[in-house]
């Protein structure tokens, strides 16, 4: 039987099984997101070099000066240890934010009662700059890593919760109806249909959340000034060490980009179906 | 081309069985002449749009269906036609168990229905497939809900994919299929759960004319092999005549059945029957009934 293509005028691509779909999605991720980011960063570094050479200002060292300074810092075992400590803090704080944010967001998306109960708190934490509430955590936890974790959490969790809620409330109701028509229980609907359909937008929330988590890490450590790379940042600030300050900033950008790639990578794997055929 | 007059009981069963698979023939022979398979008994349904206060506004209730009654025999193919907004989809959703009934009852095999059940399966206008699942996984979805082992449900899904002409597309995602192909997956998904009743809500409404005709032929072929009790909602009078044993013509809102039109043309139905005098007369009769019914207004 011939089939009139109502949705496309080009032939459908060859059949791709699940595993091949992942490989294809990952390949596209490397080609587009990773390479595009690297090209963008290299272009920014080149532009920085040219501007710094032209400006000749003490507050804007050239990029090669910053690169050498980064090399010196990474040669320092203590700095490396603090860098690893900062990254681990960020990962732990972000993981907590994901667990709580997704859980609260799902509850809000699926239950009117939960929506009424949690909306105001999520909204307040979205509107109020988190840096306003960070002194509260330092009062509770002292100048400790726990305070930094709490700051990271409060930076990232609200946006994840809000995006998850929106994801659940905007899924295609037709597929929920179709699943219901086959007798799916509430739990089966939630697990097999609702959560799965909401995942792409949940990952958008995670992508936004990871950026805020990095911000939270830096701000938290900056305020404490005794742990992590934030401590180095505070030290360089007091010493008017512009090369040191910019080095920390570049390292933070690199850390943020790597974590962003991690979330995008996970998105491509989990939601490979959403990326198939997008370029056609 | 000779016409085939409606012959109840044994003769009808014999005629139907010529095109049906052996497993359903016995069921049809035994069932015709017994109670109806679907009994819609004085069913009414209203919708209350939200008022400014966010709560239901009784003063502006919309009565979708009022005192609607009809029966569908086992193995019968019945179409429901009517003006827009007359409650056809609402009626189908109530039979499927997806919507509640405000008044009256709906019985399937003499049992009052209260929700979706394994005896009924729905084919929706928009296929509503799971976009992350392959053709096979979509077809097998109902079986997965029933905890059928993976190997068993995959085997059955592949067989059904072949039945609906999708061999070679088992691993494709819905986004890689055309609209007609997606509808075939939707049909296979409904058949996978071995329903006794197939409910079709304008399954070809979103398709172009060519694909629609191909899908009608496909449905005829599949129905001939399964003999499932089927209820089709359609806006197309020609489609209703081509596919059905009987057409229920509904009034404008509030919807009720104003006439049941038997389609006595012989089976199997074929292309070209649309030009026969019997087909033309049926078309004209149904259109006469419909043309006297007002369509729903947007501000009603």
Mean pLDDT of chain B, as a whole number?
Answer: 83
Helix proportion of residues of chain A, in percent? Answer: over 70%
Instruction: Please identify which CATH superfamily of the domain at 78-259 in chain A we are dealing with.
Output: MetI-like
Q: Count the helices of chain A. How many? A: 11
Oligomeric nature of the chains? heterodimer
Query: Remind me, CATH topology of the domain at 28-46 and 63-119 and 196-294 in chain B?
Result: Rossmann fold
Q: What is the distance, rounded to the nearest whole angstrom, between the alpha carbons of the first and last residues of chain A?
A: 25 Å
Q: Supply the CATH superfamily name of the domain at 28-46 and 63-119 and 196-294 in chain B.
A: P-loop containing nucleotide triphosphate hydrolases
- What is the β-strand count of chain A? 0
CATH architecture of the domain at 28-46 and 63-119 and 196-294 in chain B: 3-Layer(aba) Sandwich
Largest sheet data of chain B: 6 strands, mixed
Tally of DSSP helical segments of chain B: 10
Q: Rough shape of chain B?
A: globular
CATH architecture of the domain at 78-259 in chain A: Orthogonal Bundle
The beta-strand count of chain B equals: 10
What portion of the residues of chain B fall into strands of 2 or more residues?
Answer: 15-25%
Structural class of chain A: mainly alpha
Q: Determine the CATH topology of the domain at 78-259 in chain A.
A: MetI-like fold
Fold topology:
The complex is a heterodimer of chains A (280) and B (300).
Chain A: H1 18-55, H2 63-75, H3 77-110, H4 112-127, H5 134-141, H6 145-169, H7 173-181, H8 186-224, H9 228-238, H10 242-270, H11 272-275
Chain B: H1 10-17, H2 22-31, E1 38-47, E2 62-72, E3 77-81, H3 88-96, E4 103-108, E5 111-112, E6 120-123, H4 135-139, H5 141-145, H6 150-163, H7 179-192, E7 197-201, H8 209-226, E8 229-233, H9 237-243, E9 246-250, E10 257-262, H10 277-291
Parallel strand pairs in B: 3-8, 3-9, 6-7, 7-8
Antiparallel strand pairs in B: 1-2, 1-4, 4-5, 9-10
Helix pairs in contact in B: 1-2, 6-7, 9-10
